[in-house]
Amino acid sequence: MNTNSNKAIIEIRAGAGGDEAALFAADLFRMYSKFAEKQGWQIKNLESNFSSLKGFKEVILQVSGENAYNLLKHEGGVHRVQRIPETEKSGRIHTSTASVAILPQAEKTEIEIKPNDLKIDTYRASGPGGQYVNKTESAIRITHIPTGLVVSSQNERSQGANRENAMSILRSRIYALKIEQELTKMGQQRNIQIGTADRSEKIRTYNFPQDRITDHRIGKSWHNMEKILDGNLWSVIKKFQK
């Protein structure tokens, strides 16, 4: 199977650190979204699960553009942030984490999913902080019985659109499992990327007091962190293209 794809799915999940981890997940979501915009890529938010302070417990987006997967694949892993949270009154620095998984987008022709292998549930969608509750059961949860994979989507107002989003996520996860079976690599890579989101498992640290981002895999640091978090990620990504 060919993992060179112009489409990638980015899964971001808050890890250790509660609300601060969810806010950091939102920062990473914004960073990758802004980077994709600067590349002229298309962006689609497939699923989002908000926290109480406008952060994300989980957010999944699809980016489509030239060489998208190959440019982003090294972003997978546990990202750690060190900063003083807005809710911290004593000025103490907190450490929180968020995990990122990067998957190549699987097309319908690459992954055949039999309807009989799916268990589909519908439920009412809820928006940020429960402020908006959909009056119809437009949200979709799909269980792939052979693998036990479960995906959900509630971002769209229509059941059909949410089903399409959920199927996109499901196909990519099944695709990763199939590559694991063939190469004993890709599925393990996704599990490594997600990890346990523990503070000690990290590929990169964002240190706000020192205005420094450090990638621990290559021992390289960058300053001007606000610019990078604003989507100017190319200086980081190009190091891995070498």
TrEMBL record:
<dbReference type="InterPro" id="IPR005139">
    <property type="entry name" value="PCRF"/>
</dbReference>
<dbReference type="InterPro" id="IPR050057">
    <property type="entry name" value="Prokaryotic/Mito_RF"/>
</dbReference>
<protein>
    <submittedName>
        <fullName>Peptide chain release factor 1</fullName>
    </submittedName>
</protein>
<dbReference type="GO" id="GO:0003747">
    <property type="term" value="F:translation release factor activity"/>
</dbReference>
<dbReference type="InterPro" id="IPR000352">
    <property type="entry name" value="Pep_chain_release_fac_I"/>
</dbReference>
<feature type="domain" description="Prokaryotic-type class I peptide chain release factors">
    <location>
        <begin position="124"/>
        <end position="140"/>
    </location>
</feature>
<keyword id="KW-0648">Protein biosynthesis</keyword>
<comment type="function">
    <text>Peptide chain release factor 1 directs the termination of translation in response to the peptide chain termination codons UAG and UAA.</text>
</comment>
<dbReference type="Pfam" id="PF00472">
    <property type="entry name" value="RF-1"/>
</dbReference>
<dbReference type="GO" id="GO:0005737">
    <property type="term" value="C:cytoplasm"/>
</dbReference>
<comment type="similarity">
    <text>Belongs to the prokaryotic/mitochondrial release factor family.</text>
</comment>
<dbReference type="Pfam" id="PF03462">
    <property type="entry name" value="PCRF"/>
</dbReference>
<keyword id="KW-0488">Methylation</keyword>
<dbReference type="InterPro" id="IPR045853">
    <property type="entry name" value="Pep_chain_release_fac_I_sf"/>
</dbReference>
